[in-house]
Design a protein that fits this description.
Oligomer: single chain
Shape: globular
Distance between the termini: 26 Å
Radius of gyration: 25 Å
Number of domains: 2
CATH architecture of the largest domain: 4-Layer Sandwich
Helix content: 40-55%
Strand content: 5-15%
Length: 512
């Protein structure tokens, strides 16, 4: 059991190393394969323990950025919660892998575990899914066919096939007790190991043949990364300085445009929290924003905190037009629990008084994130997903199904310091770009920002905690990928397949 426990911890660490900023995407397969080997033949109870060990080794370092300014308790609580889903995965694999590694079972279990933790509790936490470690891997192209769950499934299948090859190479089965049975078992093992290895390589390299089109009418965009005066959780106390930074950076860009040193944009995009002073209620904030809009002479989308409804706040993207002011808005539909609102506040205050750092709960919007923005010659339909919403599959997909030609992810990473959080989020935008066949304009208050093309490549990438702009053309696209059309079906089929395997195994054991 000790060897299996060590193997499980190593599995979790390998999964962590696959993500930014380590970017060793191939270690995800090693980690998944190692956990498959560790849980083979151990039963559900020991599989649960081994899965928990792997989950802790996975999520404790991966989510360390959550504790930068609020301490270790929220960080470790979240990591333990997410690790419990990997514990469940380990239990399922331990139960179903009675006689050795079963690659299909492992792959289905990973998809279902990620579905569960992406939807529960409080709406789920889809961050850190295996697919988001594959932005630089050949498997990225699978996203356009089977979505984020399909990338996870394929990655898990590759890892489990490698595990099967290793298992049969190190521990060949003896077959039945007769000489004929032993010969049959030996022949089967002789071909299983290389066969599994060949299948793994084919699955890994095959997606390179999947096309990732990037054609479309160009849209010239300008993203503004205004930066914050000080890297701290109290960046909201500097809210006028943050607003002024974004105004000043936009005015500087307007000067470059006037001098012909920068291409004239069709629209300008500010990040989440660019104006934490409500411009609908504060005339000074509205005045300086309108000054920036008039300087560039094109529509500007501003990330703003609105002090509404009463005693609450909303996280919004406001559309300003030159000479008109605010004409449209999108309100974040999925506020983040414990970051933008506190569920069961009085209960959780028993464990930490830091819940009161959020004095006004943010409320969710109830309108989709599509926004028609007037540009020269007509209008462009943007699909907006604010910050965390980039990892919420149904919201991103809904934007595209409602006609979004370009996706926009305004985000604020000021509270996470020089950690991997911002790079992890950009990787998610890259996966979503391929999944939905749309460019993603990813703009942060402090970085990293960038223009993500529909093939997942990144242009104009910025550095953390710098004042900068991203300027370039992205294609307006209307074609729907297979993944966008399939929606939830890959996950539903995975859940049905795993449930069927569990029922079948239970029936076999009852009869036996």
């Amino acid at each position: 059991m000790l060897v299996r426990l060590v193997l499980s911890v190593a599995a979790g660490l390998c999964l962590w190393l696959a993500f930014p900023t380590h970017d060793l995407w191939w270690t995800a397969y090693v980690g998944i394969g190692a956990l498959a080997l560790a849980t083979a033949g151990v039963g559900a109870r020991r599989g649960l323990v081994l899965g928990l060990a792997a989950g802790l080794a996975y999520f404790v370092p991966l989510l360390s950025w959550t504790g930068i300014f609020v301490g270790s308790l929220p960080w470790l609580a979240l990591a333990v919660l997410e690790a419990l889903y990997i514990a469940g995965l380990g239990a399922v694999c331990g139960y179903l892998q009675r006689d050795g590694v079963r690659p299909l079972v492992v792959a289905l279990a990973w998809v279902v575990a990620e579905l569960a933790r992406s939807t529960t509790p409080f709406g789920g936490f889809p961050w850190g899914r295996v697919a988001f470690s594959q932005a630089d891997a050949p498997l990225l192209a699978v996203a356009s066919w089977l979505g984020t769950p399909g990338v996870t499934f394929t990655a898990a299948l590759v890892g489990a096939l490698v595990a099967l090859a290793v298992e049969r190479w190190l521990r060949p089965s003896r077959g039945e007790g007769t000489e004929r049975g032993r010969r049959a078992g030996s022949l089967r093992d002789r071909w299983t190991a290389p066969g599994a290895a060949v299948c793994a390589v084919a699955l890994l390299l095959g997606p390179l043949l999947i096309p990732r089109p990037v054609d479309g009418e160009p849209l010239q965009v300008l993203g503004v990364q205004g930066n914050v005066p000080e890297m701290t959780l109290e960046f909201n106390a500097q809210r006028r300085a943050v607003l002024d930074n974004h105004v000043a950076t936009t005015l500087s860009a307007a000067d470059l445009i006037d001098r012909g040193a920068l291409p004239a944009p069709d629209l300008v995009l500010w990040p989440e929290n660019a104006s934490d002073i409500d411009p609908l209620r504060n005339a000074d904030a509205a005045t300086v924003i309108n000054e920036a809009v008039d300087a560039v002479g094109v529509p500007l989308i501003v990330g703003a905190v609105l002090r509404e409804p009463e005693d609450h706040s909303t996280n919004a993207s406001l559309l300003f037009l030159p000479g008109e002011g605010v004409v449209d808005r999108y309100v974040k539909q999925r506020p983040v629990p414990f970051a933008e609102y506190i569920p069961f506040r009085s209960f959780f205050r028993l464990f930490s008084d830091k819940v009161d750092l959020i004095s006004r709960d943010f409320v969710a919007g109830d309108e989709p994130g599509v926004m028609a923005v007037p540009v020269a010659g007509g209008e462009v339909v943007l699909g907006i997903a604010i910050c965390f919403e980039v990892v919420v599959d149904d919201l991103m997909r809904d934007n595209v199904l409602r006609g979004a030609e370009v996706l926009f992810v305004p985000t604020n990473n000021a509270t996470f310091g020089f950690t991997a959080e911002s790079e992890q989020q950009l990787a998610a935008s890259r996966v979503k770009a391929v999944e939905l066949g749309r460019p993603v304009v990813h703009v942060s208050t402090v970085g990293v920002s960038g223009l993500v093309q529909p093939d997942g490549s990144v242009q104009e990438k910025t550095e953390l905690f710098t004042r900068d702009i991203v300027s370039g053309a992205v294609p307006r696209r209307t074609d729907l990928t297979l993944a966008a059309r399939l929606g939830w079906w890959p996950e539903r089929l995975a859940a049905a397949g795993l449930a069927g395997a569990l029922v079948a195994a239970a029936l076999v054991r009852r009869r036996g």
